[in-house]
Design a protein that fits this description.
By secondary structure, this protein is of the alpha/beta class. The longest helix has 15 residues. The model has no long low-confidence stretch (mean pLDDT about 90).
Length: about 190
Amino acid sequence: MLNLIFFGPPGAGKGTQALKVAQYYGLRHVSTGNIFREEIRQNTKLGLKVKDILANGDLVPDKLLIKILENTCHNSPDSNGFVFDGIPRTLRQAEALDNMMRHKKSSVNRVISLEVPEDELIRRLVIRSQEQGRTDDTLEVIQRRLDIYHQHTKPLVDFYRKQGIFVEIPGIGRIEDVFQTICRTIDASG
């Protein structure tokens, strides 16, 4: 079973690359952002809970994200593995994911961190907001999301480095070139 985490700040290209990798390797793509946006679109109970949280650029509470992880893993018993995109974002979430993987007699094989300079991240997010009409990508919210990333998510780098599974990939360049670099990294890890 191959289990990957795509890591990096908002706008680094996690979603794009995670989806490509999931399709290429036949893995289940788990995107919390996509899950939340769909729940909001359908006006579900979960959607109503997270709508204001996301609009402010805040993190969804650990308990809620852990429940989504549990449901996803439980509802995918025949999966060849997972590509986690947008989760974990806190140490508590990372520990919960490790525990879930242990229960499945598996583990996270690789954490792929897409490295992109902050000015490029902001540029990408502003363009995405304009092209996709994403109300969660205003300049104020973008800066807040980047601040929260540095404060809450960046500490996961040490957590995964200690496990020997953290790898940094330059996230600048053509999408296909970044994808090829990611695939070489995955294939080299066996």
